[in-house]
Automatic annotation (TrEMBL):
It comes from Bacteroides graminisolvens DSM 19988 = JCM 15093. One of its GO terms (cellular component) is cytosol. Residues 16-298 form the NADP-dependent oxidoreductase domain. InterPro entries: AKR, LGALDH-like, NAD(P)_OxRdtase_dom_sf, NADP_OxRdtase_dom. Pfam families: Aldo_ket_red. GO terms for molecular function: L-galactose dehydrogenase activity. PANTHER family: GH17980P-RELATED. Transmembrane segments: none annotated. This is Putative oxidoreductase. Coiled coil: none annotated.
Length: 310
C-alpha cells in the first residue's frame, strides 16, 4: 500500500481508501456484522482513510460505521464525513445553512463515536446555491476548524467546474481538498484536466467510484445509471475483452485509478470483507498497461467524457 498526503493537510493516506456508503445499504441490503468486519479488514490491510456521509442510507452508514470505530484505535485512521445532504423515511433532503452544517457535524460525531472529524466536506455542492456555499456553509465549517472540532475542510461534487468556481471565490486555504467521482477511471479521465489547477492551490484530490458506478464491472450498471446507452455498451464490450483475457475489468479499473500519484487516494465501497482483501491484492499487482490501452480504445476517447460533463 502506498501513502500520499492530501494537499498540505499533513494527512498521509492510503492510495486505496474505504468508502462507507455500502454500510448504509445504498446498493443492496447488508449483513451488519459482515459490514462491520469489512471496516476492520480495511484497517488491517493498510487502509487508513474512511469516508462516509449522513446521507448514505439516511444516517445508517454513519451508525454502522460508528459501531466498528468503537473497536478501532482513533490514531489508526482518518475519518471524513459530510454536511448538506440528508434524508429520512426514504425522502432525500438538502440543507446547506450554517446552522444545519454545525448541527450536522456534532450529530455525525455522536453516531460515529468520535470526538473530532479529520475532514469535513460540503456534500455535492451542485445541489446548492454556490453563493451560499461560499458565503455561509464554508465559513461555518472554517469556524469549527478554528475551534478544533474538525481538522480540515473540503468540498465534493460530480461537476469539476463547480469545485473550481467555489475555490476561486473563497479565501486561500478555505478548501483543503476536493472529492470528485467518476472522473478518473478507465472510461472517463476528465479529472486529469484539473490536476494542475488543484495542485496550484495546494488542494488534495480524492477520487471515487473507480468502477464508474458499475459501468466497469461484470455485474453491469443499475437501471438508474445516467450514462448514454452507447457508452454503457462500449464498457460492456471492454468488459468482455478483459474477461476473454482472464483479467477482470474490475481489477484493471482499480489499478488504473490508484496508479496516478497525483491523485491522492481512490475510494471504493463494500460491506464484504472478502471484497476488501481482493481489491487490496489487485492494486498491489503490476497493471497491464497494454490492456489499459486496448480497453480505452474500445471505449473511445469521445465517449470517455460525454456523460458526466454537466
Amino acid at each position: 500500500m502506498q501513502y500520499r498526503e492530501i494537499g498540505k493537510t499533513g494527512m498521509k493516506v492510503s492510495s486505496l481508501s474505504f468508502g462507507a456508503s455500502s454500510l448504509g445499504g445504498v446498493f443492496h441490503d447488508i449483513k451488519e456484522k459482515e459490514a462491520i468486519q469489512s471496516v476492520f479488514t480495511a484497517i488491517e490491510t493498510g487502509m487508513n482513510f474512511i469516508d462516509v456521509s449522513p446521507y448514505y442510507g439516511h444516517y445508517k452508514a454513519e451508525t454502522v460505521l460508528g459501531k466498528a470505530l468503537k473497536e478501532i484505535p482513533r490514531n489508526s485512521y482518518y475519518l471524513s464525513t459530510k454536511v448538506g445532504r440528508y434524508g429520512k423515511d426514504g425522502v432525500n433532503t438538502w440543507d446547506y445553512s450554517a446552522k444545519r452544517a454545525k448541527e450536522s457535524v456534532y450529530e455525525s460525531m455522536d453516531r460515529l463515536n468520535i470526538d473530532y472529524i479529520d475532514l469535513i466536506n460540503v456534500h455535492d455542492i451542485e445541489f446548492a446555491d454556490l453563493n451560499q456555499i461560499v458565503n455561509e456553509t464554508l465559513p461555518a465549517l472554517v469556524e469549527l476548524r478554528e475551534q478544533g472540532i474538525v481538522k480540515h475542510v473540503g468540498i465534493t461534487d460530480l461537476q469539476l467546474e463547480n469545485l473550481k468556481w467555489v475555490i476561486d471565490h473563497v479565501p486561500s486555504g478555505t478548501v483543503e481538498s476536493v472529492l470528485n467521482f467518476c472522473h478518473y477511471c478507465l472510461c472517463d479521465d476528465k479529472l486529469a484536466d484539473f490536476l494542475d489547477y488543484f495542485e496550484s492551490k495546494e488542494i488534495g484530490i480524492i477520487n471515487a467510484s473507480p468502477l464508474s458506478m458499475g459501468m466497469l464491472s461484470e455485474r453491469g450498471v443499475p437501471a438508474w445509471h445516467p450514462a448514454p446507452v452507447s457508452l454503457i455498451e462500449a464498457c460492456k464490450r471492454a468488459m468482455e475483452h478483459c474477461k476473454a483475457k482472464n483479467y477482470p475489468i474490475e481489477k484493471l479499473a482499480m489499478q488504473f485509478s490508484v496508479n496516478n500519484p497525483r491523485v491522492t487516494t481512490t475510494l471504493f465501497s463494500t460491506a464484504n470483507p472478502e471484497n476488501v482483501k481482493k481489491n487490496v491484492a489487485w492494486i498491489e499487482e503490476e497493471m497491464d498497461n497494454e490492456l489499459v490501452n486496448e480497453v480505452r480504445e474500445i471505449i473511445g476517447d469521445q465517449q470517455r467524457v460525454s456523460w458526466a460533463n454537466s
